[in-house]
Each structure stands twice: as structure tokens, then as C-alpha cells.
Predict the 3D structure of the following.
Amino acid sequence: MPTLNHYLLLAILLFGLGVTGVLIRRNALVILMCVELMLNAANLALVAFGRSGGSLEGQAFAFFSMTVAAAEVAVGLAIVVLIFRHSGSTDLESIRLVGGGAREEQ
Amino acid sequence: MEGILFVLLSVLALGGGLWVLLRRSPVDSALGLLTTMVAIAGHYMLLDAPFLAAVQLIVYGGAVIILFLFVIMLLNLRQDRLRARRLAAGRWVYALAGVAVLFCLAGIFLAGGTSGAVDAGPSGTVEAFGEALFRRWVYPFELTSVLLLAALVGAVALTRHAAPKAEDKA
């Protein structure tokens, strides 16, 4: 029988994967996917806590967090499309609009 | 039985997450994410939350992944460029930072010392969850419709081409 600890451990591992992905990848789309991984880890922890605490509130929180995540993906992907139109790639390291670009050109 | 299912679903979820991280092509990453989402839906079933499992499959496994795949196809990313540069420049340092976050979370987890069986609660039937959603959480629930409308309008307004101005037409 899996206990609360098992679910929390799984959520921690998934969240760590998401953080590492956001840090090491450079494709904006993959970074958004890693953000989704983190959100899912948090949802899993919420549902596990709610189940062990004996209330439906964990599920309600996870439900609302899912709607927010759906809205976030829609707007985030729209921004990725704009970035692609502007610079021709989804590589975040090729986009230097503030500060860094000027230094490289000198 | 539940233990076996838990291990299987966890391996699927973590494997999908690793797939997202390590594959070059964003399409592969999206499919890895799909695996993780489906596995987490299975976990919700184990946690006695069938409604959330269905929502997870429909919203994440359906809508979000399809949206990602649509955008990937729309953008027509060049394979050679993807192959040449996948990871960020100082990736080892960043990966260390990510692992450090992992250890911090694990430390908090160990220090907190939560325990106990996970099935202490009432059974989370769809009926009970609907009662809670439409009584206690009815205002937040209605507000999410405003949020979704705002996201819809925002996404369309961001991505549509700029409308020609009046003087351009003349």
C-alpha cells in the first residue's frame, strides 16, 4: 500500500525534473513543458495531502490549478509563436533584447 | 495490487519526465509529457479521485499536449539547428542547481516527517466532489470561466497579425 510519503517523494522527484529541465534546456517549448511537469507534481502532492487529510479540498485546489495551467499554456504558447515570428527560432539563448545583446556586439 | 500499480505508474511518470528533459526533438518531449500526464491520471485513480483523473486526461492528455504539438508543427523548427544546440551553455552548473533544489525539497520532506496511510479520507466520488465544487467552491469555479475567457482573448490578441490601419487602406 502506498503511503502519503511515497506520493510526496514522487512529487518531489517530478518537481526536481521540471526545475532541472527549465534550467538546462534552451528551447522555449520544452521549457514550457517542464513548467507543466512542475505544476503536475504540485497537483499530485495536493491530491495526496487532501486524501490523507480526509477532505475534498486538495482535489478542489488541484482542479483550479489545472484550469490556471490550461490558461497559462494558451498564453505561453501564443508568446512562443510571437518570439518565433520575431527572431525565427524558439531558442531562448538567441533572444537578447535587453542589455546582453549590446555587449556581445561590441 | 495497489503497490504494484503505484510503482508501475511512478516509473512511467518519471520516465516520461526524463524523456521530456533528454530528447532532442520537441515532438518527442511532448510525447514524454503525455506519458507523464497519463501516469498521473492513474495516480489520481489510485488516490480515489476519478473526476480529477478524467479532467487530467481530457485537459492535459488531450488539450494541452495537442496544443503543444500544433504549435510545434506550426513553427516548422529546423532539425539541423535543433540538433546543433540543445542544452544551455553552462548546462552542468544549471543541472547542479536543479539537483540542489531537489535535495532541498527532499530535506524539507525528511525534516517534516509526515506519515500515515493515504486513504484516511472519505471516498472522493464524483458526486461528493460535485457537491463540494458547486456549494463551497462555486465562486472560484465561476471565476475560472472569466480566467479562461481572458486567456482566450489574450492568446488571440497576441498572435493575430496586426490589423491594417485606416490610413493604409486609403
Observations:
- Confidence is low (pLDDT under 50) at residues 102-106 of chain A.
- Chain A touches chain B through 72 residues (CB under 8 Å).
- DSSP finds four helices and no strands in chain A.
